[in-house]
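Changelog note: in this version the structure field was regenerated for every chain. One regenerated record is shown below for reference.
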Amino acid sequence: MPRKPRLFVSGATYHVYCRVARGEFVFENPDNAEAFIETLRDVRDRDGLSILAWCLMTNHYHIVITTGSVPLWRSMARFQGTVARKHNRSRGVLGRLWQSRYRARFIDSNDYFRQVVAYVHLNPVAAGLVTDPAEYPLSGHREAIGSRPPTILDVKSLLEVFEASVPSLMRAEYLSWVRLVAEERWLDQGLSDLPWWQDAEDEDEIANPRRHAEAETYDQKRVNEDRVPVNLSELLERFEQITGMTALDLSSSRRGPVLPNGRIDLTAVAVGRFDHRVCDLAKILCKNPGTVSRWLSKAERRSHHDPSYRSHLDDLDCRIQERSSPKVIK
């Protein structure tokens, strides 16, 4: 079954989380941890992000991030892809690094923001690694309290949320709040049980269209509640009827002037519009999921930069929804 489309709000703040596949302690290695930090800093600078809290554990990470003009999905694809490539290159291995696609939650109130910042920086305490978050080097807490120069954290934007009568006391307010949250029972609960995650309708929800009318899918489309569901086999049949390209054509090693764009278009519609899984499309086309993911990335870049390409996908999307499967003539 296709997954519900994930929705993003431009310029919003998110709590982002992802775990390493098989729970391996990849970031116990100092070189891997440094590569993670360098990549996060590079993507932050390139995409104009604001990092308001972060913590890298041995097998997962938490980031509180505010986007700018570059949408979250694009920054996260660049960030996680780069970290995975660096890790695989250093070990001389192939395969995925991350357990699944990242999870993210739109933070839409100051109360939740204050809670999530404290939760992220207290992660090592909740895990029993340290008793004071200032003892843990791989988080933004030391930057927030001024014991280490800012390297990733947007300290000014973080502390502005912790109001104080005197600006110089905002850091003390932040520290007092973290100490208070450290006593809360929800601190060591699972992700879905955290206060700002509890009202999510499913684990893939990032923003809810009923509460965030401005939310859009990765290709800048609002969610259409009346979208006609189309299973993957039927979608491939309709794509063939419209374009003349069969699954056999698309799975072949031939290139030519048409097939590469056809593969990209099919992936953009099947995964981006109808929310089928990359691995399912890859299986049907006898391709590596990484190859299909690259086709999706190309479609995303084209959609972001070329309005005519978005219109092309809109037309293809509508024709697939409207077109009926051919009747079998007996």
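Spot check on this record: The radius of gyration is 22 Å. The longest strand covers residues 13-19.
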